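A reminder from the course coordinator: this example appears on the midterm review sheet, so study it carefully.

Given structure:
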């Protein structure tokens, strides 16, 4: 069955979903994207994803109204047309054609949504935890793309490739000031003496949707949370627990940083408790239930 793609307001067969060679993302990487998780035929935290994208668009591309993006019904229709209930959904917005007049105050942006098999992480990874490495490249606080999900993603993918070559699941970035920032494709949390910590948004780091869900869950679970204090390499290595978050992995325990085990080298109880609560939250919201 040929996949169906949402492109600029229409549902079209994948082979016909064509973006022009003058598109700004193709020529200059001038685009943004959101990777979202769908369960039970609905996208989890859809409006949070769209709000983040609109904020980034206003800063990097052009002002973007909610009406210019697909409705919840359109996302659900795309999933149905592709025969998917659980899926990885990607929304890409680009600056549009470079042939548009430079004086155009409201350029026409390209809006594309694709849906594919979820491809979840292996259960063994959650059971045993994963190793990570420290990225050799530092994250620059003055990088204009910091804190945004830009289609200029190759540096992160190259870093992730290096991590995989070293048999690690993720690479963690530190800033030029030696503060822990984030992973190549994730946010990072540590636990020390029962207190949960994550790098402040001003580090800068991506304001992850999964990151926000975890912080929200700490209030429900009565877990002490600190998202304002910078984290050092010593804080990371001396942590009782470390875990990663993103929309697809949800909450992934880390058991080793390069050659250094985290605590006893096993997933910790707080990560496990948050993973269970996170999965419950997804089931409730995507099932239109009450939590």
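Designed residues:
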């Amino acid at each position: 069955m040929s996949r169906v793609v949402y492109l600029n307001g229409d549902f079209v067969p994948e082979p016909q979903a064509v973006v022009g060679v003058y598109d700004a993302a193709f020529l200059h990487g001038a685009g943004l994207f959101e990777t979202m998780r769908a369960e039970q035929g609905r996208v989890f935290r859809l409006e949070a994803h769209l709000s983040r994208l609109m904020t980034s668009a206003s800063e990097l591309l052009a002002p973007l109204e909610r009406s210019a993006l697909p409705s919840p019904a359109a996302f659900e229709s795309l999933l149905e047309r592709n025969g998917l209930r659980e899926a990885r959904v990607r929304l890409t917005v680009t600056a549009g054609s470079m042939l548009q007049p430079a004086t155009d105050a409201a350029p026409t942006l390209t809006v594309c949504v694709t849906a594919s098999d979820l491809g979840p992480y292996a259960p063994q990874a959650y059971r045993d935890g994963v190793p990570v490495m420290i990225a050799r490249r530092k994250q620059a606080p003055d990088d204009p793309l910091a804190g945004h999900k830009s289609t200029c993603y190759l540096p992160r993918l190259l870093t992730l490739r290096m991590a995989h070559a070293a048999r690690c699941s993720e690479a963690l970035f530190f800033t030029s000031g030696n503060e822990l920032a984030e992973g190549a494709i994730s946010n990072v949390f540590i636990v020390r003496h029962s207190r949960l910590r994550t790098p402040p948004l001003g580090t800068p780091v991506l304001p992850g949707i999964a990151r926000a869900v975890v912080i929200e869950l700490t209030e429900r679970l009565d877990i002490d949370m600190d998202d304002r204090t910078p984290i050092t390499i010593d804080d990371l290595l001396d942590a009782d627990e470390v875990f990663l978050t993103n929309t697809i992995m949800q909450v992934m325990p880390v058991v080793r940083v390069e050659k250094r085990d985290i605590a006893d080298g096993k997933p910790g109880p707080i990560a496990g408790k948050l993973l269970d609560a996170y999965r419950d939250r997804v089931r409730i919201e995507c099932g239109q239930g009450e939590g």
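Residues 4-117 form a domain with the D-amino Acid Aminotransferase; Chain A, domain 1 fold (CATH 3.30.470.10). Helices lie at 24-28, 46-60, 72-81, 123-128, 154-165, 209-221, 233-237, 269-286.
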